[in-house]
Amino acid sequence: MTYHTDADIIKGINSGDGKALDALYQKHYQAIHHYVFNNSGSTQDAKDIYQDAVILFYEKITEESLQLTCSIATYLYAVSRRLWLKRLSEKRKYGAIVSDFEAEIREEDLVSPNDQQYVQLAAALNAIGNPCKEILEDYYVHHLSMGSISEKFGYTNADNAKNQKYKCLVRLKKLFFNQPIDVKSMSYER
Predict the structure, then answer these.
(1) What residues contact 70, with CB distance under 8 A and at least 6 apart?
(2) 31 lies in which domain range?
(3) Residues 134, 139, 143, CA angle at the centre, nearest 5°?
(4) CA 88 – CA 29 distance, rounded (Å)
(5) Side-chain half-sphere CA neighbours of 117 within 13 A
(6) Per residue in 11-28, pLDDT tens?
(7) Model-level pTM?
């Protein structure tokens, strides 16, 4: 069986197929590596954080205690991000001393009500696709001017880029306020 969709991966994990876990690991690692590496981490840090996130996901799926309300990629990114921020906070708190002791990871430490909104927003942002996702990230995350965005995307002027940004925001708002997806109700048929 090939593991291209989230439903395929979840079905494979639940059936005990180790290839599903391998596919999961390979499919989303680069995004986590990019995040950790660009936020004061090393490749080894990224591997450790991602492995912890995958293990947590695997345990939650096999225990059927996870009601996934977003894509697997978004969930793993949110958990990895939270784990990495926690680790950075601990490093600052205790200086540069790195201990071999890792506190047990509890779900309540990883996902707060605000994180759920972050996960839903990230899922909605992924769902709108490009160029909307890039335009919104360029403007709100990278703080590019509308003139710069206009040049980057080939709009005739900044006003046209601004209109496109508004349309993208409307689409994002519609996606964000849709109901969450229940993993148990996901179809595993192709």
Answers:
(1) 78, 119, 120, 122, 123, 180, 181
(2) 6-185
(3) 125
(4) 19
(5) 3
(6) 888 888 888 888 888 888
(7) 0.50
